[in-house]
Description:
Blueprint: H1 2-58, H2 65-72
Amino acid sequence: MVVFSLCLPFSLFAQIDKDMKEFDDFVKQQQKEFDDFVSEQNKEFAEFLKETWKEYDLQKPVASSKAGACKTGQL
């Protein structure tokens, strides 16, 4: 009984240590998945912005009769 009671704390500490390692591995994996997700979303958003600006840059300016009238002082 004495030997058992002396060994019990060591086995409990070993189990706790194993559980903490498993939890730490889980947290690291979740953090990596989240970081990968954020990185992918940032890439997609940057590409979206590039494409939007390309479309905007490709549009020709539209001449307005009011814009010309303002320049000559006629309204």
